[in-house]
Design goal:
single chain; 6 helices; mainly alpha; about 170 residues
């Protein structure tokens, strides 16, 4: 909680200015590189790393948006697809995508790949909130594939780290 309090204070003081704490080094070329890296992954090549030095501020904002969106959804949009449910879910999805961006800019290639799959899943999740209900099951089932591939990439990283630790001992 102490670290969270410090991060929030630093975001408020230096947020999006010249020495920004949220999304440091972000530029539009990264979006182009995301598309290029997606094609590289589909064709079986490793992505070109996009490494950003984030000190946890982007994740702090992501967590705050997740909490805010979930609170709006629970308080005002339960058991319905009303505007409050859509608003809360959209805020939560944006927070999640910020967190996924930090995976995308991670130096480890498995984390980088996982971030890209999770970002795609987030975009699909955002769009589906505004589609007719008859399409939702199909889209959800297809989107699970993105999530599972991303999760598998994180599991690969954990497995590699564990293997190296076992070899050391």
């Amino acid at each position: 909680m102490k670290a969270l309090k410090i991060a929030i204070k630093e975001i408020i003081e230096g947020g999006l200015g010249a020495n920004r704490k949220i999304l440091p080094d972000f530029n539009l070329k990264q979006i182009q590189k995301m598309a290029t890296n997606s094609i590289r992954i589909i064709t079986g090549k490793d992505p070109e790393p996009i490494i950003v030095k984030d000190a946890g501020h982007t994740l702090t904002l992501a967590g705050g948006l997740n909490f805010l969106g979930a609170s709006i959804g629970v308080l005002f949009g339960r058991n319905s697809r009303n505007i409050w449910n859509k608003l809360g879910g959209s805020i939560r999805t944006i927070g999640s995508m910020l967190g996924d961006y930090t995976l995308f800019t991670h130096p480890d290639k498995n984390m980088n790949k996982a971030g890209m799959f999770f970002i795609v899943a987030g975009v699909v999740d955002f769009v589906q909130r505004f589609l007719p209900e008859k399409y939702l099951n199909t889209i959800n089932h297809l989107n699970i594939i993105n999530t599972m591939i991303g999760t598998q990439k994180i599991a690969n990283r954990t497995h590699q780290k564990n293997t190296n630790l076992v070899e050391v001992y």
